[in-house]
Structures are given as C-alpha cells and as structure tokens.
User: Fold this.
Amino acid sequence: MAKQRKIPMRKSVVSGEMFPKKELVRIARSKDGAVTIDPTGKAPGRGAYIALEPKEVEISRQKKILDRILETSLSDEFYEELLNYVTHQKARKELFSNDK
Assistant:
C-alpha cells in the first residue's frame, strides 16, 4: 500500500483561505526590492501567495494588499502582468483537468 503524500498548504493573502500550494501563485520580493511572479515557488526572498482567481488579483490591486504585505509599491504594469498570468494559468488548469 502506497503511503499518502502530504500536500503542502498555503494561505491566500487576499481571501485568507488555505489552498494546496499548486493552486496558488507566489509573488516574491528579493532583498534588493525587485518583485516578481515566482511560478516555481522557490525564489529567494519574501513571498506572498495569491489564488489563481482573476477576481483576487483585482481585489489585491484595489486594496493594495500585495503592496502592504511585501512592503513595497507595485506598479499597474505588475498587476496587469499578474492578472494575465493568473488568467492564463486558470485556463490551462481547467483545460487539462477536463482531459481525465
């Protein structure tokens, strides 16, 4: 009998809900202050997780949640890039989950 693997859980900074790590995207702030989308979840620096929901990105932009948590000021271009990334990943997830 195969041993049940532990699924790492993380909390979305927008909704406060716990999700499996694979269902979230990590935003990382490096020591020099550069903020990037971290698809691997392994980039060094301060990280914040957000669910793969375009609605959460919009809420984060309006309430400046990521700015507060990462202690920096994020540009509208970064939020646009994040929104595009989240929308794309959600579409991929839905497309490939229906193949089973």
Summary: The chain has one domain: 10-97. The domain at 10-97 is CATH 3.30.1230.10 (Hypothetical Cytosolic Protein; Chain: A;). The mean pLDDT is 92. The two ends are 23 Å apart (CA to CA).
